[in-house]
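Prompt: For my understanding, could you write out one protein's sequence and backbone structure tokens?
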Amino acid sequence: MKIKCALLSSRLSVYLHQIEKRFWTLSENYLNEPLKKSQELIKLAGLLDFYRESVNHFFSSTSDAKHASSMLVRMRSVELLATWLVYCIAFNSTRDNLFQRP
């Protein structure tokens, strides 16, 4: 069972790492210039939701509490950073509309 859990957690870790790389790439591109279409922002929010659900699913389904607890801090920290990143991209993409003067 431990080997199966380790294999699943390593696969999930690789998968989540790929999503994290996508977030960091987006941060390089869109923190200084806004997204062109609101659909891009919706997709980005959906990707964040999927990432967060995957992290939560991992912690709720793993039977190896020691292994999960060692990954908890890192995964939650990255989840928080990704959430803030998406928030900043969303703000950057909508701030001109929010602060228009009549």
